[in-house]
């Protein structure tokens, strides 16, 4: 990146931060507004956590402890994972729990293992899932379909 672009980006950041420096936050315990649910992390977008399980013990367990054990390290309270869909989702692929309509296997990939390890360390952690893609058999080419609904429900049941 040339010097001119760096200076331009720096000036843009300074300009934007000038208008966001002062912000009033009102805490009203009687309102029915949004609720803080905790601090979380995302494992998804294709292989962002894949290498975690390549670490040998005891290092892998220590890293998982730092991430998920309450009142220790990051103490994550929320984990959002990719629902694997057998497709390229930015940096890699995450295998699906259903390669076909009649195939169901919750042991594929690393996201299931990560959720299990997180729950072991913090039984109260909130787990979320989001699919970046789905297998090609879903809806016979129609994404918005009963197949897609059934596919996601089966993931929730896993």
Give a written overview of the molecule.
The chain is an alpha/beta fold and 158 residues long. It is built from four helices and three strands; from the N terminus they run αβαβαβα. It has helices at residues 3-18, 59-68, 111-121, 146-157, and strands at residues 40-43, 78-82, 126-130. It has a three-stranded parallel β-sheet, covered by helices on one side. β2 (78-82), α3 (111-121) and β3 (126-130) form a beta-alpha-beta unit. α2 packs across α3. It is globular.
In short:
With 158 residues, the chain is of the alpha/beta class.
Brief descriptors of the model:
alpha/beta; globular; three-stranded parallel sheet; 158 residues; 3 strands; 4 helices
Strand content: 5-15%
Q: How helical, in percent, are the residues?
A: 25-40%
Structural class: alpha/beta
Q: Count all strands and give the number.
A: 3
Side by side, the strands of the main sheet go 1-2-3
Spans of 5+ residues with little confidence (pLDDT < 50)? none
Order of helices and strands: HEHEHEH
Number of helices: 4
Q: Termini, distance in Å? A: 46 Å
The gross shape turns out to be globular
Mean pLDDT: 83
């Amino acid at each position: 990146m040339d010097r001119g672009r760096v200076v331009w980006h720096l000036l843009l950041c300074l300009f934007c931060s000038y208008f966001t420096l002062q912000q009033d936050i009102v805490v009203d315990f009687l309102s029915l507004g949004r609720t803080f649910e905790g601090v979380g992390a995302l494992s998804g977008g294709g292989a962002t956590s894949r290498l975690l399980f390549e670490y040998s013990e005891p290092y892998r367990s220590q890293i998982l402890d730092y991430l998920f054990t309450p009142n220790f390290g990051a103490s994550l309270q929320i984990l959002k994972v990719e629902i694997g869909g057998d497709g390229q989702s930015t940096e890699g692929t995450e295998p699906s729990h259903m390669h076909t309509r009649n195939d169901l296997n919750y042991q594929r990939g690393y996201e299931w293992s990560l959720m299990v390890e997180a729950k072991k360390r913090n039984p109260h952690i909130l787990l979320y899932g989001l699919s970046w893609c789905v297998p090609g058999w879903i809806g016979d080419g129609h994404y918005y379909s009963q197949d897609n609904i059934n596919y996601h429900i089966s993931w929730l049941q896993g």
